[in-house]
Specification:
single chain, Aminopeptidase, Alpha-Beta Plaits, 2 domains, 7-stranded mixed sheet, 4-stranded antiparallel sheet, globular
């Protein structure tokens, strides 16, 4: 049996190109990643220039689709990625239709821009099958924010000449970099395919902003067979993130995002006020009630009303108003308490004003934690195989925002798998979600190296 094993390993070794024999795998991964430095920067800048918000990532998805197909991946798109009926917070149909026409003039490859994509089924999954072995999934979010970028701003040290051409859409959170890292990882892993075992899923997720996209991918079952799951987010250096890689994070606040529509009865405000039912009055009661939800004794809670709209004129009792609000909780259970109270208050506000309330869930996420043994394994991989990168002294940092990667992580963990949400640390020009945000593009190659090294460790023969 020992001789048989040696002979099989010898056969595998002979399959390697002669120049690769005897070289350490970490040296090869580093070399492969660095060879992609230029094209990774170009990809990131292309995604940035043609930024697309949630469910409109049509050009972005088509470009990813094309790249993965040309690399030789099995590719899922459209309804194969996102379960029909499970998407939240969709744009209006006319907006999706207009954007689908626009992206063709912006260089979207028509043969890879599917009918489903143009109907808002964005996102792509690339699958690399290497035989029997573990199933590893990596997640890269690809959507932009609804911000107006001012290309004349001069205080950006890292970006020049590739501001967004799509009005009201800007990559101000680093997802353009995440997409570029994902494609670089795809290239490196394809070069290592013959030396690996198992299945690798590269998930390019739409609609992270607002917590809209992960839910539809999870509902499709793509995480149910995953043994190891990893995602990352570009993050500014400082605080607990004092290295190049923070292997794990925990504590994202669970959240729900709602639109509450109030419907009343219109009437002349001076002539027949008794015949009217003011939807704005109902919305106002709801706003005050939401801010008065008792906080929970067992953890952090948040509530915010960000938008209130309604009415047509000062002398018309309004028959429609809408508020957009969110609740958050330190745990999924505390968040559910906040959501239940919010629904009760909105319905009550409608009832006392004689109106009707319709609540529409627009997005959400759960609390999350990284598996400590897995993040420690990743820290060891980086320290051993990528010694030019520093692991942050705090290996498991706390998140204070919300992230729908939590839905993917929790599904993997519920099925017995391991999950981490890392940080790729880099200098930034400003805080995320601001129009001055930018990052040092050296993080692209570093991100490729880290993901490729993790997958190699998990899937090597």
């Amino acid at each position: 049996m020992i001789g048989y094993t040696i002979r099989q390993e010898w056969v595998q070794w002979l399959k390697y190109p002669r120049k690769e024999r005897g070289r350490k795998m970490n040296d090869r991964i580093i070399e492969y990643a660095r060879e992609l430095d230029g094209i990774s920067r170009e990809r990131r800048r292309d995604f940035h220039r043609f930024a697309e918000t949630g469910w409109l990532e049509m050009r972005t998805s088509a470009m990813i689709h094309k790249t993965l197909k040309e690399l030789g991946y099995e590719v899922l798109t459209g309804r194969e990625v996102c379960l029909e009926g499970a998407r939240l917070g969709l744009p209006k149909e006319e907006e999706m239709r207009a954007h689908g026409e626009l992206v063709l003039s912006q260089g979207a490859p028509a043969e890879y821009l599917t009918k489903d994509m143009k109907e808002g089924y964005t996102g792509v999954i690339g699958i690399l099958r290497c035989g029997e072995g573990p199933v590893v999934a990596l997640r890269f979010d690809i959507d932009a924010l609804g911000l107006v970028e001012d290309e004349k701003e001069s205080h950006r040290p890292f970006r020049e000449g590739f501001s967004s051409v799509n009005k009201g859409m800007m990559h101000a959170c680093g997802h353009d970099g995440h997409g570029a890292i994902g494609l670089g990882v795809a290239e490196v892993l394809m070069k290592l395919k013959s030396e690996m075992r198992g299945t690798i899923k590269l998930i390019f997720q739409p609609g992270e902003e607002g917590g809209r996209g992960a839910r539809a991918i999870v509902a499709h079952g793509h995480l149910d067979d995953v043994d190891y799951f990893a995602g990352t987010h570009i993050a500014p250096s400082g605080g607990p993130d004092d290295g190049d890689v923070t292997p794990g994070t925990w504590g994202s606040l669970a959240n729900y995002k709602y639109d509450a529509h109030f419907y009343g009865e219109a009437a002349h405000a001076g002539g027949f006020p008794e015949k009217g039912k003011s939807a704005i009055a109902a919305a106002a009661h709801a706003v005050l009630g939401l801010t008065a939800i008792p906080r929970h004794s067992e953890g952090i809670t948040r509530v915010n009303v960000g938008v209130i709209q309604g009415g047509t004129g000062r002398n018309v009792i309004p028959n429609h108003a809408v508020i957009q609000f969110e609740v958050r909780g330190e745990t999924t259970e505390i968040n559910q308490y906040m959501a239940d109270e919010a629904v009760r208050i909105c319905q009550g506000a409608a009832q006392i004003t004689g109106c009707r309330c319709e609540l529409i869930l627009q997005g959400g996420g759960e609390s999350q934690h990284s598996d400590v043994d897995f993040l420690e394994q990743i820290a060891g991989i980086v320290e051993r195989e990528l010694p030019h990168l520093k692991v942050s002294s705090c290996k498991n940092a706390k998140n204070w925002g919300s992230e729908d990667i939590s839905l993917m992580m929790n599904r993997v963990q519920a099925h017995g798998g391991k999950a981490v949400y890392m940080r790729s640390v880099t200098p930034t020009a400003s805080a995320q979600h601001t129009t001055a945000f930018d990052f040092d593009e050296d993080v692209l190659v570093e991100g490729i190296e880290v993901f490729a090294a993790i997958v190699w460790e998990l899937c090597r023969r």
